[in-house]
Amino acid sequence: MNDYDVVVVGGGAAGLSAALVLTRARRGVAVVDAGQPRNAPAAHMQGFLGSDGLAPTELLAAGRAEVTRYGGQLVSGTVASITACPRTSAHDRRGFEVVLADGSALRARRVLVTTGLRDDIPDTPGVQERWGRDLLHCPYCHGYEVRDQPLGVLAGGPVFIEDALAHAHLIRQWSDDVVFFANGGSLTVAQREQLVARAIGLVETPVARLVVEDGRLSGVELEGGQVVPRTAVFVRPQFVPNDTLLTGLGCETGQNHWVTVDATGRTSVPGVWAAGNAVNPRAQVITAAGEGSAAAIAINNDLVDEDLPITVANFRLGLQVG
């Protein structure tokens, strides 16, 4: 079994950023990653200072190279479970056993979980196929690239009308030709007035599918066959955290059922931190990287705090023996 100071579960922006800080702090670090980043369908990454327009795969490749340059270990695989190791003495450092799907195991004094989230998107035909291309979710990531074009905002269903409407008002910042597809949902008088006031079109008929021509989105087809021409459509997905490892450890969750962390990413379980989309649905790539860095600094400080009394005790014992 390989022993490390820290095992980072997830090799995205948060995990690699944390690993970089920790390896530069001369900690033994392993990063376990399954190679399935959330932003894999996106051709470019926007809004990351100094890396705007860079392909997500290039950012991750650069991050992996930086981590390994400082001695970090990259492990390809999926973590099946994390369990706390019982203490055998007062001088025993807390630890965790991280078991991978292939049965191999790593031991770590601290664990940082950065497993991200998954997007629950409407099952409308064409949505899954165009996801991350011209079926988009984040206006701050993609709005500028489709500015001044005929845009649509698709409601995921009647239950999600309010969230989708908020999204439509955001998208209006990037284009004066925006159509809100209520997808069979009903709007209040006040909601209709807001759309009219902001010159946002409204289509209430349920959506049948997205129309794709020559490999590009060209419109939204309604039930009945009418097609509303659009070059890009936004949808606000439901965010589902990949947090089973955290909840399995007993980490507390909040009223929104997401695992709660402090400003450094510390969970309610001693020795366990989390960062990025696994605990923050709003974190963009640059935010996740920052959270990973903050968690790494806190973890290193925590390790120093744990080592100090043990080192002093050993020092005193050595003086007595000598």
UniProtKB/TrEMBL annotation:
Gene3D superfamilies: FAD/NAD(P)-binding domain. Keywords: Flavoprotein, Oxidoreductase. Residues 4-291 form the FAD/NAD(P)-binding domain. The keyword NADP does not apply. InterPro entries: FAD/NAD-bd_sf, FAD/NAD-binding_dom, Ferredoxin-NADP_redctase_2. It catalyses: [thioredoxin]-dithiol + NADP(+) = [thioredoxin]-disulfide + NADPH + H(+). It holds the Pfam family Pyr_redox_2. GO terms for molecular function: thioredoxin-disulfide reductase (NADPH) activity. This is Thioredoxin reductase.
